[in-house]
Design a protein that fits this description.
- The complex is a heterodimer.
- By secondary structure, chain A is mostly helical.
- Helices cover 83% and strands 0% of the residues of chain A.
- In chain A, helix 2 packs parallel to helix 5 (87-116) and helix 6 packs antiparallel against helix 7.
- The longest helix of chain A has 30 residues, at 87-116.
- Chain B has one domain.
- Chain B has helices at residues 5-23, 39-66, 69-99, 109-113, 116-136, 141-169, 194-225, 227-231.
- Classes of the chains: A mainly alpha, B mainly alpha.
């Protein structure tokens, strides 16, 4: 089982390395979005504005990064996977791949935010941790939404409609948590509690994905 | 008669709710005054909505277990009546807001809209809105039933933790929030006068049964319309 998951993951990574235009496309998407923000914002946005802008941009980056993961698989290729792997292996490989991709993109957009929209963050390491945690949550939820939307011929628009209300609570938690990396002082233990909650929700998404994906997969 | 007892019960309970809700004595608290009677309508709408969504969730699971098309009809009709209850909950809430928070407490529209319970309700309505959009994008009915059942289950499983979490996270104007007298954002029986409870609980049951009644009527219409599909 692990071998097949790793093989599927390897295939996705190889595909990404060979079709680099999609990868660079996303990088360019992040760069141009942050640049537009840089031009449209006043020079020193305060921490709260910076924080909410950052998470909104993360949301859209995630929709664009993860959206194609199921949409790009053609019908024929899905049939082929059907013969060689079980749905659980397939969804775990996809979740892992999207997670890695989204973590990378999170770092890229964080760096661009630091460069172009200056840096109001006090505790840099903590904020990176929160950003990575956010990247995980976003990529997991939108992978599942992408799997659902791929079945309806509509595409990226449907992912946003389906995913935004579902991700909203986690996004609120993340925005709240990331305030701890700015000035705001938190009650003892509150940070761990929030991070734990987000982690538990991630776990819930994984469990639901593993349970429900076999039903999406059958045609 | 043996099948319609709950419809009669619903009618009797709602009659009791309206008559006793408007005529019995209620405690008059500052700001709230007589508007507390809205509790018998506003809060019951949310109860009915949640219960109908739970029923819809259960039917979606039942659909995935046996792929019986009937269960899909049940699931989406309970969800749509749940949405109607949610919209009515908002409507009764607006009436309540306009004579308490806005006039007497001087809250701005922005702070009212960021209320945790409003956020939770908005998430629920957006999820079921997305559910209906998803349903609309299929032409094949089996595929539609299957995929939308998956979304219904997934979204519902994500919705409930968030309804428990968000109210504990942000300050609330609703009674029972952190910062007010009791720490429990859900219903606390000490929050309510005994005389009011005697009307409130029957009201919840009455409105929920009414919602179920509307849903079953819609289901029966659809079952008749798709009769050929189901038996043919």
């Amino acid at each position: 089982m692990y071998q097949r998951i790793i093989a599927l993951l390897k295939k996705d990574i190889l595909l990404e390395l060979r079709q680099q235009h999609t990868f660079y496309g996303i990088l360019l998407y992040i760069a141009s979005t942050v640049y537009v923000l840089h031009l449209s914002m006043p020079d020193n946005p305060d921490a709260d504005v910076w924080n909410s802008l950052f998470w909104v941009i993360q949301l859209f980056v995630c929709v664009n990064t993860v959206a194609k993961s199921f949409l790009q698989e053609s019908r024929g290729r899905m049939l082929y996977f059907y013969t060689i792997a079980s749905p659980v292996e397939f969804i775990i490989a996809k979740l892992l791949f999207n997670l890695l991709l989204m973590l990378l993109m999170s770092i890229v957009s964080l760096v661009l935010f630091y460069i172009l929209l200056n840096n109001p963050v006090n505790d840099g390491f903590k904020f990176i941790g929160i950003v990575l945690l956010g990247g995980i949550s976003l990529s997991l939820v939108f992978s599942v939404m992408s799997a659902i939307a791929a079945k309806a011929q509509h595409n990226a628009a449907l992912i946003a409609i389906l995913g935004f209300p579902v991700i909203l609570p986690q996004l609120l938690l993340l925005m709240r948590l990331s305030k701890s990396a700015f000035q705001e002082v938190f009650r003892e233990g509150a940070i761990l509690q929030l991070a734990g909650l987000i982690g538990l929700l991630d776990l819930l998404v994984i469990v639901m994905a593993v349970i429900l994906f076999p039903y999406l997969w059958k045609e | 008669m043996n099948k319609s007892w709950w419809k009669i019960l619903s009618f009797v309970l709602l009659l009791y709710t309206v008559i006793c809700g408007f005529l019995l004595d209620v405690p008059r608290l500052p700001i709230l005054n007589e508007t507390i009677r809205n509790l018998y309508f506003h809060v019951c709408m949310w109860f009915a909505m949640m219960i109908l969504f739970i029923v819809s969730f259960v039917y979606s699971i039942k659909y995935l277990r046996g792929f019986d098309y009937r269960n899909d009809i049940f699931a989406h009709n309970f969800a749509s009546v749940g949405c109607i209850m949610g919209i009515l909950g908002y409507a009764t809430g607006i009436i309540w807001v306009s004579v308490t928070w806005v006039t007497d407490q001087g809250q701005s529209l922005g702070s009212v809209l960021k209320e945790p319970k409003l956020i939770g309700a908005a998430i629920a309505l957006l999820i079921y809105g997305a559910y209906f959009v998803l349903r609309g994008s299929f032409t094949d009915i089996d595929k539609r039933a299957r995929i939308s059942a998956v979304y219904n289950i997934f979204a519902f499983a994500m919705l409930f933790p968030s309804i428990w979490i968000i109210p504990r996270l942000v300050g609330s104007l609703h009674p029972g929030a952190p910062g007010s007298d009791s720490g429990n954002p859900a219903l606390d029986k000490n929050d309510m006068d005994a005389g009011m409870r005697a009307v409130f609980y029957p009201a919840v049951i009455g409105w929920t049964l009414l919602g179920a009644w509307i849903a079953t009527l819609r289901i029966r219409i659809e079952l008749l319309r798709d009769k050929k599909l189901l038996h043919g």
